[in-house]
Here is the input.
Amino acid sequence: MKIFVLVIVIIFAVIFLLIFAFQKGIIWQIFHPQKVLYLTFDDGPQENLTHKILDILRQEDVKATFFCVGDCARRHPELLQAIRNEGHAIGNHTMHHLKGWKTPYKTYIADVEEAGQWLNSRFFRPPYGKISLRQYLQLKKNYQIIFWTAISYDWDRQLSPQQCLHKVEAAARRGGIVVFHDNPKAEKNMLEALPRFIRMAKDKGMTFKTFEDR
Ligand SMILES: [Zn+2]
Here is the structure.
């Protein structure tokens, strides 16, 4: 009986340590002394959408970080350049938007490295937020791994723009990291929720930075 309890305790201790090791290097929010928050856009660049986001950000005088898919950047280098020209930062979101848990280790790492040739970034966000411990341990040698404080779920067509806004409202605080999508699936919700989120955050006295200039 005693051995049984000991085994259970050891198993829990190992699980706890693994989770701790995993979480320690992943960024969920930034500890910033000022009222700064971080807008991020995943899945771009997209032919008929990226410019609409850039227009909103320019009108609101806000900078953001775009976690781009390498293959999209390969097809639209001019859009990647437009993002950079406007003072926004670029992050790596794999070459083919792979799901880490379902992709063999070597394939996944090679895919991220291939994307790196197009994106040239030290920031990485795994698609779907899914990454294995081994993939994570390798990638953290070369990248800051950025997750999020809140996701807008803007791709979900069951949700209204108001509901998407509601999902990220609470993250409009010091060091918050908010995710919208530069993805046609999210266009309708995102284009309406994004300017409202920015204005709501500004009303609270928040300013916006990219990960490059944090
Ligand atoms: Zn994605």
Notes: The mean pLDDT is 93. The CA atoms of residues 123 and 144 lie 5 Å apart. Residues 42-43, 93, 97, 127 surround zinc ion (CB under 6 Å). The longest strand covers residues 36-42.
